[in-house]
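Case study 2.
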Amino acid sequence: MKSGRAIFACALVLATASNVAVASGATPAKVSGATALALAGVIAPLSPDLTGAEKKAMALLFAANADISYKKAIVVTADRIVCRTGNVDITVRSCDITFGKKVRNVNGSTANEIFATEALAGIPPDGAAGSNFESLSKLSCTIDPNAIRRKDGSGADCTFQPGN
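Prediction:
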């Protein structure tokens, strides 16, 4: 069991290191490729700023459909994302995603997807009594369907500030 966890931890570190340039403090972090598409993909359905066509295009791209009819770049943004999981009450999974003055709260599997994707993007967890937190601010992802269609690893880039 311990060796399985060690292998998973090593795989996560390697996957993260290959796609992430995380800096400390106030320096923005950047992710690209599959990690950026995943981060944009879990936030896009919640965004009040995207059109229905943009949300549909993001859903198709995130579901392994590179050859879509939507051609324009899609920009997925969020002002702040704070996720929490419980390590005492293990049923707790929630995220607050702030878009301007609107805050969306999600729980369960959707929150778990966001929490796990933040970890993949290099967001370090912060613990508090009975909880684990991950947070970022100033998320801006640019998704270019035309570049993604080429299947060369390009077409998805995100920047954000780690932490609050």
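The mean pLDDT is 86.
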